[in-house]
Every structure is written in C-alpha cells, then in structure tokens.
C-alpha cells in the first residue's frame, strides 16, 4: 500500500505493534500530528470480539511506558488509544483478504496517474490486486497503488445499534483517558485519574 507515514510513526510502529500483539491486540493504525505544544499520537487498536473503553485504558497505560522508554518525541504530546470504529481503516495488504465480503471504500492511483475512489464489496486479493465488486462489475486495484481504504458500515442493513452496545461496539471511537503528556526536559506531570 502507498501509505505515507510520519517519521515518528515509522519509528514506533514495530515496537508498538509487537507490544500490542503480546497483550492479544492488533495495531490498526497510528497517526501523529498537530501544532507544537498540542501534538497527539493516536493509536487505533482492535482485538477479536471488539474493544471496550477498559481495553483502551489498559493498553494506553502500557504503551505509555514503551513510548517513554523509546523517547522518540521531543516536547509534549498527548497519547490517545482508541478503537478504529465501525468504518475501520484498511492499512495492510492482508486486510483486503481478511475483510472479503465487506463493503469498502478505496482511494487509489490508476494506471494513468489519476486518483480515483471506488466503493463496493471486497472480493479478496488476486495476483496482488484487491478485487472490488462495484455496480455489478469487478474492478481489480493493485495493492501498491492503494492510498487509503476503509470498511463502510451498513447501518440500514444492520438496524440501529442497541442502546447498551452504543458505547462500546457501535461508537465510532471509544477512547480511554488521554495518556500522560511528556514535557521537554524529561519531566512528566502526574497523570490525572478520574475521581482525583
């Protein structure tokens, strides 16, 4: 896939992915950005059966330790660990096989160099190409030309989410409390906990 990564993300991705795997989670996507003094490292995770806010909090605490040990970010930042939501991004070539049968939206660069977006039912991968059924016809998109892709949740086909499930499964991004902010000079303020 043709996904551009911030140098901070590229430097952390392997260690974060490995740590998550050790705890039974999957790294879906990492993002880093924002203006100086208000930067955010967002880590989207998943696990079989879905995530809860407690899962996000649990891994936020553990990942904060790993990131502090690696110390790749100068100055302060905010760590946010959350679910990828129902419109989960497709970030790896294997995702296009894993989510075969699901409705997807994919942005890619065609052979003429034009950016295009296609929406349809993912059929899987054949000969290095994601095959998508759109308007009754299959279109094959080379995985190395995919710039962005995500699942499209069919609200009409699944009905409204149950009230109890809204906070966990159907919420776009249940998040844990933001992780601690790092300060220049290696000092960290004490994280605020609910009820303090």
Describe the structure.
- With 196 residues, the protein is α+β, with helices and mostly antiparallel strands.
- It folds into two domains: 7-85 and 161-186, RimP-like superfamily, N-terminal (GMP Synthetase, Chain A, domain 3), CATH 3.30.300; 95-152, Roll (SH3 type barrels), CATH 2.30.30.520.
- Helices cover 26% and strands 29% of the residues.
- It contains five helices and eight strands, in the order αββαβαβββββαα.
- It has helices spanning 7-22, 53-70, 95-98, 155-158, 163-170; strands at 26-33, 40-46, 78-82, 103-109, 115-126, 129-134, 137-142, 146-151.
- The chain has a five-stranded antiparallel beta sheet. A three-stranded mixed beta sheet has the order 1-2-3.
Which regions have little confidence, pLDDT < 50, spanning 5+ residues? 160-196
* Number of helices in the DSSP assignment: 5
* CATH arch. level architecture of the largest domain: 2-Layer Sandwich
Our Rg estimate from Cα atoms comes to 19 Å
Shape: globular
Strand order of the largest sheet: 7-6-5-4-8
Content-based structural category: alpha+beta
- What is the H/E order? HEEHEHEEEEEHH
Count every beta strand, where a strand is a DSSP E run of 2 or more residues: 8
Q: State the name of the first-level CATH class of the largest domain.
A: Alpha Beta
End-to-end distance: 44 Å
Strand coverage percent: 25-35%
CATH fold descriptor of the largest domain = GMP Synthetase, Chain A, domain 3
Largest sheet: 5 strands, antiparallel
Total individual domains? 2
Q: Give the proportion of residues in helices.
A: 25-40%
């Amino acid at each position: 896939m043709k996904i551009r990564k911030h140098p901070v993300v590229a430097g952390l991705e392997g260690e974060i992915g490995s740590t998550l795997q050790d705890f039974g989670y999957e790294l879906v996507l990492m993002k880093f950005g924002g203006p100086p003094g208000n930067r955010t490292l967002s880590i989207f995770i998943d696990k079989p059966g879905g995530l809860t806010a407690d899962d996000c909090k649990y891994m936020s605490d553990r990942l904060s330790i790993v990131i502090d040990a690696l110390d790749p970010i100068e100055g302060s930042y905010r760590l946010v660990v959350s679910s990828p939501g129902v419109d989960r991004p497709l970030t790896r070539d294997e995702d296009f096989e894993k989510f075969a049968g699901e409705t997807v939206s994919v942005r890619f660069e065609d052979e003429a160099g034009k950016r295009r977006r296609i929406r349809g039912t993912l059929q899987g991968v054949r000969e290095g190409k994601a095959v998508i059924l759109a308007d009754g016809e299959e279109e094959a998109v080379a995985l190395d030309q995919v710039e962005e892709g995500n699942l499209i949740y069919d609200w009409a086909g699944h009905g409204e989410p149950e009230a109890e499930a809204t906070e966990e499964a159907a919420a776009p991004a249940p998040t844990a409390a933001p992780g601690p902010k790092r300060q220049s000079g290696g000092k960290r303020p004490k994280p605020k906990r609910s009820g303090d």
